[in-house]
Specification:
- There is one protein chain.
- With 249 residues, the chain is of the alpha/beta class.
- It has one domain: Rossmann fold, CATH 3.40.50.620.
- The chain contains six helices and eleven strands.
- Strand 8 and strand 9 form a beta hairpin.
- It starts with a strand and ends in a 5-residue tail after the last helix.
Amino acid sequence: MRVIVAVKRVVDYNVKVRLRSDGGGVDVTNVKMSMNPFDEIAVEEAVRLRESGVATEVVVVSAGVAQCQETLRAALAMGADRAILIESNEELQPLAVAKLLKAVVDKEQPQLIIFGKQAIDDDSNQTGQMMAALAGLPQATFASKVDVVDGRVIVSREVDGGAETLSLALPAVVTTDLRLNEPRYVTLPNLMKAKKKPLQMIKPEDLCVDVTPRLKTLKFADPPKRSAGVIVPDVKTLVEKLRSEAKVM
């Protein structure tokens, strides 16, 4: 069984982001970049499926600038078998990425496609669902447990007020939640081995996909700074301030 995992290069979650002076986006100059944390969970789950004998090959795919090769090499160091980079300098929005991945899926014919549930940079939470719809595949989102049994994938997911278990016929799309697993630590020897694993470079035009952005972001802005709190002497003063200043009563 072949498993494809989509990974994205994002600003490292430990970095405090700052906006560019023109308000056109986040300043990534000299900023540490890494694999999206939810995608790390997706790669870990795919590698575990291969180690357990359920999967035979794990292919990681990313779309973006040439530097995404570093992210793919990290995924290869975690245990993936080969990688594909769809190289583009365009702003790739969720629908464009979904179309690119759908084209790769049509070519590779995997039995399972795993996404992180969302990226920590735009928090769109759209790509996995869009790709499943484009490919006409069943999907299970926010997975907290994944089992492959008798040609089906059994997915447990948390919902409001409890848990839900879905049984999907393969091929299928799964998006991962934080509770699915804990990604392994990548060792230096595995990083060195990853350099020898195959990494294929292709362009969107090779897949006959138009990645022209459909949405235009007008401006980014920092949230307003919170004013300092005040200490009130009694409940009566608190109620009065809530009524006259905060306007919540």
